[in-house]
Write a structure and sequence with these properties.
about 350 residues; mainly alpha; 14 helices; about 0% strand; globular
Amino acid sequence: MQATLGSSLAERANALNFVRLVLASAVVVGHTTSLGGFSPNALTEISSLAVNGFFVLSGFLIAGSRMRLGLGRYLWHRTLRIMPAFWVSLVVVALVIAPVAAVASGEAWHLAGALTFITRNLFLEIHQWGIPDTLQDVPYVGAWNGSLWTLQFEFLAYVVAGLLLTSRIVRRHLKLVLCLVTILSATAIALAQGPLGVDSYFWFNSLRLGASFAAGMTLWAFRDSLPRTTTLIVLAGAVSCALYFFAAPTLMYALTPLPLGYFLLSLGGSRRIRLGSTNDISYGAYIYAFPVEQLLVLLGGHRLGYLGMVVATLALTAPLAWLSWKLVERPALQRKNMRLATSTPPVQLVSGVGSGVRTK
């Protein structure tokens, strides 16, 4: 019997955590150019492609989660997955990393500014990127964690997907609806900076990341129909690479989500890659790598060169990501099945295959 995307991901023993860790590492590779003050290279924009990949994977996993959970329970799970670690990262950056950086570099650090960094950013929309009088002598001035901008869009996608899949009509015609949403999203991106004239940061990124999220949901809907073959995996990877290297950014954002998603999910279906299968440090790596790299630059780490900075950042971020998983994320997720005051009754899966996919 031929393996499908759904059957390869139906067991918990998959490599999706490893794929997400690779994407988090790719974000570091892309960010190092601007944070270290290096000349742009072929991988400078790889962080954008990696973020799109994160959203495709999220769309795939979240579609499955919402189809088997009531809306209240689903939103509770999503909140536990993203918010506690995010809040702790704000505190760690403001009250630990930033003052250490100030002492090491001779800059000033003010408690009042650190506290507003925490309180003004509590609900995912980042209103304060820096802490006054810190990060003044680095190539990327004044921003302690530039990676956090995507999180408000991710949570917004959770909410929109949760509400969309509340409709019985949508569930009954799931494949058709999700195909239409994906096609319309991709078309809107392709036209965004042309005829549509979308120049709003919020709306353009909503389109860009929403299209990737919708593509992931569509792949989930078709998971039991999509064969997982070496030929298709190589082809999807080649198309994604070609679009990244040769297409204009807007066209790349519009056309990569489906082939990139198929490629990443197919890799995630591997039973041979066990790294990250027990400790999912990908989210921690994503939220801590940027401040770690800023601290490294303050300490002169850019003298290691581009590759040296990437390696050093990943090596120093890994322990923080592991602690985030062990002390914050996993304990929070252990509370996901606690009784809620109100909860929408769960809805059965449209198809039973794939129900074992590990959710975020």
